[in-house]
């Protein structure tokens, strides 16, 4: 029961953020490092399981690079493509937030919002262990 409340609250939180930002195309909260989706706002034919696995793999790869370069833990990763951007942001020790935004979006504004959102997610998931037990 507690798990359902947490996931419901999390879903509301990211939906509210996605809906308030015209240039945010979708978000997903993923358990890290296993890459399992917890909540998402994707629309259309986007597979959240695939996005979760890929986001976790990308974060693990670049986290390893940061550690090998003695730069500490990776907090945020931003990628640009010809059609838009993806931002992978820590959302606590055991979760990441992946956000897809339009290419013309104000990256600083969105990144600031994502940082605040990730802190709320971190607080919400602080006692959630991703096995269904709280």
Description:
With 134 residues, this protein is α+β, with helices and mostly antiparallel strands. The chain has one domain (2-124): Beta-Lactamase (2-Layer Sandwich), CATH 3.30.450.30. 43% of the residues lie in helices and 24% in strands. The chain has helices at residues 2-20, 48-68, 107-124; strands at residues 24-31, 37-40, 76-80, 84-90, 95-102. A hairpin with a 5-residue loop joins β1 (24-31) and β2. The model has no long low-confidence stretch (mean pLDDT 88).
Outline of this structure?
This protein has three helices and five strands; from the N terminus they run αββαβββα.
| Terminus-to-terminus distance | 10 Å
**What would CATH call the homologous superfamily?**
Dynein light chain 2a, cytoplasmic
C-alpha-based Rg, rounded = 14 Å
Poorly predicted spans? none
Question: How would you write the strand order of the largest sheet?
Answer: 2-1-5-4-3
Number of individual domains = 1
Annotated CATH architecture = 2-Layer Sandwich
Summarize the amount of helix as a percent range. Answer: 40-55%
Derived from helix and strand composition plus strand pairing, the structural class reads alpha+beta
CATH top-level class: Alpha Beta
């Amino acid at each position: 029961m507690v798990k359902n409340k947490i996931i419901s609250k999390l879903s509301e939180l990211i939906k509210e953020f996605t809906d308030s930002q015209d240039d945010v195309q979708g978000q997903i909260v993923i358990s890290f490092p296993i890459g399992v989706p917890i909540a998402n706002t994707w629309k259309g034919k986007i597979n959240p399981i695939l996005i979760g696995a890929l986001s976790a793999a990308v974060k693990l790869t670049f986290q390893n690079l940061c550690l090998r370069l003695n730069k500490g833990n990776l907090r945020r990763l931003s990628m640009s493509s010809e059609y838009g951007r993806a931002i992978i942001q820590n959302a606590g020790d055991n979760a990441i937030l992946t956000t897809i935004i339009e290419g013309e979006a104000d990256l600083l504004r969105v990144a600031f919002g994502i940082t605040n959102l990730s802190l709320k997610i971190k607080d919400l998931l602080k006692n959630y262990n991703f096995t269904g037990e709280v």
